[in-house]
Amino acid sequence: xxxxxxxxxxxxxxxxxxxxxxxxxxxxxxxxxxxxxxxxxxxxxxxxxxxxxxxxxxxxxxxxxxxxxxxxxxxxxxxxxxxxxxxxxxxxxxxx
Length: 96
Prior knowledge:
4 helices; 3 strands; 3-stranded mixed beta sheet
């Protein structure tokens, strides 16, 4: 649910209805209102950091943040750049 809310806020950001800083502020207020189990609040902190530093899409940022929290060190994906290292999480191409 929280990931979907964030996805919809990103859509509003893309059309200029909300700024990136306002989006993050509103989303953090939402997180403070509810106890999250999966994904954790830490996943969203990592999400914002990865998205800002690497210009990743919403769902790629979510996936990488969840993998990092789970201790994954290699993520196999044909859709992401093979060999890229995201702070200790490396992308591998399963077809290479």
